[in-house]
User: What shape does this take?
Amino acid sequence: MTSVQALDIPTYLKIHVEPDPVGIGQAAYISAFMTKPTASSGMGSTGDMYTGITIQITDPDGKVTTMGPYTADSTGGVGGLSFTPDKLGNYTLKAFYPGQNLTKSASSFFGPGIDYSHVRELPSESEPEILTVQEEQIPQFQSAPLPTEYWSRPINAQNYGWGDLGGSWYGLGVPAFATTGMYDATGNFNPYSKAPNTAHIAWVKPTAFGGQVGGPIPSDQESQFTSSSILINYFEPIILDGVIYYGEMAGINSQVVSWKAVDLRTGETLWETAPGITANASTVSFEKLRMGQNLKFHSMQEYGTTSFLYSIVGGGMFGGAATYRLYEPSTGAYMGVIYNVTTDSAYIMDTDPTHENVGTLFGYFTSGGNLSCWNSTLCMGGGTLASEILRPSTVLNFTKGIQWTVKLPNTLAGNTISLSIAARTPDVILLRQAPNLVTQTSAGYSIDCGIDAHTGAILWGPRNQTLPLYGDMSLLNAKQGVYILHNKDTHELYGYSLNTGDKLWGPTKLPGTALSTLTVAGDIAYGNAYVWDFGGYVSAVNINTGVINWTYVPRSAGYNTPYGIYPIWVFGSQSIADGKLFLSESHMYNPPLFPGAQRLALNCTDGSLVWSINSFSGRCPGAVADGYLVEWNGYDNQIYTFGKGQTAITASIQNDVLSEGNTVLIKGMVTDNSPGTKDADRTARFPDGVPAVSDESMSPFMEYVYMQQAKPTNTTGVLVTLAVIDSNNNYRQIGTITTDAAGYYSFPWTPDITGAYTVIAQFGGSESYWPSTTQTSFIVNSASATATPQPTTTPSMTDSYFLPSIIGIALLIVVCFAVTILLLRKRP
Assistant: This one.
């Protein structure tokens, strides 16, 4: 350590206020700063900071207000201050610094540290800054209005309001028998994305051979190309920034042969690569996509959001410690590795907008009687959150990201207990021990405990919760301050507070049949617990009272299924977004692959059916992002993407020049211009284009267009509005017409004035389609002028004889001339 000699260093304090001028009652923002940091100030807020900075504000009447004292940051500045002037006129602002003796040393890149304890920073004050306050208000920036047309990424950085349209599906949780695909550790509720209101299909993409095979393989309900196995995961979706990431499976060996990045809107493959840098056939070391992340990072050096794509190697039930690898999502380029992943738990993303690093992933795990919290940003910083740049080292240790570790309670009333994680939520980690007398037979109690997810402190418990003796009790879901237990034997629910452990309500008897007790699942959103079962029933239960708000009753399946109804599958195959609950009528393990199953979209408020479409998709959840729903359909092993589609409208006039008083026929077509309509199958079957149809006709029509189902006979079209701009430059609507089932329309109209017309044909859009417009033109000429009638003169008797004689003589001359010409031609 070297020491700097005693020095008195002059300082230069500045002040700035904006906007200037400012409207009365509007905020004015202040920053005060030195021309340079203290002598000992270093990177990451090390060394001394300027302290005791104050700001004096003198209003137009001479009243003085003092703000502060403040401590500057490592650059020597104080920012983020504001005040609201309430008087018209000039305000005077001035900053003051009292000076200080430095007490800290600073590190050096080129040698030993430097001791600055003999250095004094001298006092200073700024020049006065004058702020003019006026009556007129200063306008604030207005983000572009939300789109009423088709939109795509990237979203312009100035379009702040558009952020509500975007959203990702991070795959932070793991459905049964999968590696990724759930939204997060709490379930499949995405509160940040819109979701489709109809079954309109944007595009499809095969993942493997699918559907019926052909001879000599029988065509029945159990001989299709395999599609409902728990071993083959044809599609485990991660959606990040408008791109779908998934691993392509190599059929029955259940291994990923490539990673694909596919544009969410178009289905276009953006890049495809071997599965990571460890691609090989080894089950243990095979690399699979694990999850995605968007991380907001702000430091002195940089700010903004960065995306990461994680893969996993090893781990699992028998794989020991796992390894994560990081990839750059837009290119698939390798970035680094995280070794010694203690547990591949489901993760929770920090979504609090007031936090510094929104998007940080938190993982919770138990080991050796301890509960630990892992912080992804801490790990990437090599064990510090003070890093100035977000450049993860190529080699990271998972343990560097452990934010805290606490010892688990291990006794209750003198008895040894063994708690484990039952549920992870953003605020509370639920620990439970639920003894059974024999398998699936409750001992009549559980021991529950709530841990603060932010600090690890015990919020309540451990406490003994009385349960039905011999009941088959399981945790249904935990979220939004409540955890809910389900008794399989009696099909009843019990609600408990996550914040106190108190019982809130129960038992609540759920509606259903005998089939309902076979399998049950649930998720929490919008203050309701949504519970569905193998009997096909869906109920919405108020999480605070246990009252059943609504129940969806299954439809009859007749002989189509072995159950008489269409069962709803569990295994985390649900998704919730934009006020809709998406569920799959299906099952797994055993045949049959029964016909007629549907993907259901239920209204979360009242349980009504918003839409449904032919689908057997119990293998994985439907991922929701950017207004699209992406699911995998076991009937043909294809990815289906639902969402609003682009359209095209045409307008033509065969005779575009007409006379006054005539009628013009305007005709055209409205077509679905979605990417899926450009596939070879669709262009061959619909050479004029796939017609746009009404929302009410959407599901059966999409099944016909994309799923080889029967062509519906009651399809209706969409509404077209026709308008003209006439020769006087007046705009007027001339009519509306609905297209037919083929997408065509025709509209006769008689112009009322002469001159040139512009015809505007517009389809205004619907829940299924974005709008489109086109125009054409014609001209109306004035009618031809009519000749003035002249009086008729009656010929005299002499003329009656004389005129025919003259005509006869003329004809005789012509005949003689013709004979003469003929004789001349015959001469040799």
